[in-house]
Amino acid sequence: MDKKSFWExxxxxxxxxxxxxxxxxxxxxxxxxxxxDGVLTxxxxxxxxxxxxxxxxxxxxxxxxxxxxxxxxxxxxxIVPALADQDHPDKIDMTKFKDAMGESPSVRKVxxxxxxxxxxxxxxxxxxxxLNNFMPGSNNRLVHAACTAVAAKPGDIYNPLYxxxxxxxxxxxxxxxxxxxxxxxxxxxxxxxxTAEKFINEIIDAIGKRHTKPFKDNYxxxxxxxxxxxxxxxxKATSEQEFFHTFNELYDAGKQIIMSADRPPRDLxxxxxxxxxxxxxxxxxxxxxxxxxxxxxxxxxKAQEYGEMIAPEILEFIAYNVTSSVREMIGxxxxxxxxxxxxxxxxxxxxxxxxxxxxxxxxxxxxxxMDDINKRAVRTLDDIIDLVAGYYxxxxxxxxxxxxxxxxxxxxxxxxxxIREILDQSYEAIGENFxxxxxxxxxxxxxxxVAQMKVDERLVRDVNALKREMGV
Length: 472
Ligand code: ADP
Ligand code: MG
Fold this sequence. Notes:
- The chain has helices at residues 3-17, 20-26, 47-68, 95-100, 123-128, 141-152, 171-185, 196-208, 213-220, 237-252, 273-279, 292-305, 312-321, 326-343, 349-359, 370-375, 381-392, 396-399, 406-423, 427-433, 439-453, 457-469; strands at residues 31-36, 39-44, 74-79, 161-164, 191-195, 224-228, 256-261, 283-286.
- It is an alpha/beta fold.
- The protein folds into three domains: 3-100, 2-Layer Sandwich (GMP Synthetase, Chain A, domain 3); 108-286, Rossmann fold (3-Layer(aba) Sandwich), CATH 3.40.50.300; 293-470, Chromosomal Replication Initiator Protein Dnaa, Chain: A, CATH 1.10.1750.10.
- The strands form two sheets. The protein has a five-stranded parallel sheet, sandwiched between helices. It has a three-stranded mixed sheet with strand order 1-2-3.
- Strand 6, helix 10 and strand 7 form a beta-alpha-beta unit.
- Helix 6 (141-152) runs parallel beside helix 7 (171-185).
- The chain is elongated, with a radius of gyration of 27 Å.
- Bound molecules: adenosine-5'-diphosphate and magnesium ion.
- Adenosine-5'-diphosphate (ADP) is lined by residues 85, 134-135, 140, 165, 167-173, 290, 298, 326-327, 330.
């Protein structure tokens, strides 16, 4: 069974037994990254989904995975940021789950009637991006104006149009929006949007089948060809050459070409000089990080899209502190919204700060007292003993003492396990702090907790809650 079908099978089973809203919210855009050496690795677009699912669904997922493939021993979780807004062949169509929830069909997007010739998977996505929901701000006015001009008169001015910039700054948004706008202005034109990777895969397939004519005809018979992330053509001579011919034919016929890359044409290493100079023939514009006010406005609009009212100071806090990309900034906001919905609270600066910290992107959060954020971080063995004692509401002296009743022994073992895991202390050192116990006793306790966590969902939740308290 392929990865996608396997994931679909697991989710379908899970859907019938778990909280349906969770499945729709937190499993959306998730994939199976792979199965290797008995470990099933799942990919999630945002850290929050990943953490949430690991905490709540680990055992269930493991069990369902094992039902499908008995060799699976463990499930691991990864963040794959690109899943947030890129199409991915392993993503599952969640509409059947939505349908099962009884979502009214009128709420669903009505397919666009225009003839959009895009590769199948990009189709729905392409509908989403529009020039009027791209906020140009002061930094991206030129690029926005150029896209609007191209959409009004494709093939006329700014041909080719070449956008470049770092990831997550809106290149794909602009490319697809321009394609949409061309179709809106000129419903009879043929527009193809595709990523360079897709182009490369198709040409390789066509060559493999010794049948390249349909491929060539398809791409040379359009009014506008949009190719995203052309840096991927580097060092792929055959694909590059094919693209070069396509490019020339379209250009000579006065057809529009729009491209994006992560760098300007002159820096496209591994690409033929002729191609580089051709890319630079038309209009080359950089897509930049929007200014602060624009970033706040983007967040505000996103929050509205999610039907949420988020306090302005929180939006400003995110916009101020996350400057790596618009995508990451939006990701933090969506995390905050998801968390708040789940806990039926409102996002706070603190919860947002935690999410940003988890991304490890920002060393120094501005507008927030770092002491407060660090306060929770656990540094010593005593901190852990105090926390566990507090969590189980037993006196500290009992926790480290001699009593052997179950109500105290179990938290004591958890405490030893956490010290070992978080502080990486030796069994001897831990033993000394628990009334001079022998190291084999500590070892036995830690192993017991590890074994118990495989079968005891409640324990996993407690351990996770404790770790969260400790800021781990
Ligand atoms: P890139 O292709 O450059 O990696 P994307 O086009 O995928 O980036 O943009 C990432 C996300 O940020 C998308 O959700 C996009 O809609 C959003 N975005 C980026 N810039 C803006 C902007 N100026 N206005 C509105 N949304 C933006
Ligand atoms: Mg992109």
